[in-house]
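Q: Given only this backbone (241 positions), what sequence would you predict?
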């Protein structure tokens, strides 16, 4: 994800260091297969986040996003000067909806020179559309390679194997389904093919280091504007600092 921080700086402590750092005002966070940092929030919290699919950054910006897996970096250094310009244009917006329009316009401009969808990109799309509930042989058939070759090619491209990526997608789908539909956790686990609710809880502990309920509270705090718009697409949420 690409995050633009407009409020007070976020303080970050990475798990492999005891030094607390100040996050840059434009930060790129790579795909996460485990928690890797602790955030300390203080003062006013105001940011805008663009979420990318696994192959989105490579197709739009021609940058290998897997270099930042389980890590983060200054977004201005990872991308180019247009991201810095986007930061200031987003900062001038008065509503969340206006920021969405500015971001959409920026990303649409990248589509004209985007890389075409290839076989590994098609595998990513299949995993995403299935909410991570798909068999490896089916994905290998889609890419016209053996399961072993699929794992090698996918890992080389995205920094994780297709099985791990499917687990991440299913975990995210479970959280998204709970946020949007408000279903009981037992129904969410059943809908997404978990053997039982405990298997889903294990995935939450693995990817978020907390329980499903605790993770839900964090998401509802950080993404309240997005959740409000999901429930009412016409809602134009004012930005309050």
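A: Predicted residues:
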């Amino acid at each position: 994800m690409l995050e633009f921080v407009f409020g007070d700086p976020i303080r970050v402590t990475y798990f492999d260091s005891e030094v607390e750092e100040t996050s840059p005002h434009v930060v790129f966070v790579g795909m996460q297969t485990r928690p890797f940092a602790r955030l300390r929030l203080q003062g006013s919290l105001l940011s805008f986040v663009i979420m990318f699919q696994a192959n989105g950054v490579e197709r739009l910006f021609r940058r290998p996003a897997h270099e930042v897996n389980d890590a983060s970096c200054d977004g201005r250094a990872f991308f180019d000067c247009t991201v810095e310009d986007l930061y200031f244009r987003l900062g001038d917006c008065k509503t969340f909806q206006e920021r969405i329009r500015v971001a959409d316009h920026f990303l649409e401009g990248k589509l004209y020179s985007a890389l075409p969808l290839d076989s590994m990109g098609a595998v990513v799309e299949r995993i995403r559309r299935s909410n991570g509930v798909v068999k490896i042989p089916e994905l290998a058939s889609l890419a016209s390679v053996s399961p072993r070759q699929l794992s090698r090619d996918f890992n080389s491209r995205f920094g994780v194997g297709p099985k791990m990526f499917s687990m991440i997608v299913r975990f995210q789908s479970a959280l998204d389904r709970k946020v949007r539909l408000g279903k009981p956790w037992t129904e969410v686990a059943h809908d997404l093919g978990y053997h039982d609710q405990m298997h889903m809880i294990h995935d939450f502990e693995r990817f978020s280091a907390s329980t499903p309920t605790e993770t839900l509270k964090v998401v509802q705090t950080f993404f309240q504007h997005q959740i409000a718009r999901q429930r009412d697409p016409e809602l134009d949420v004012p930005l309050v600092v």
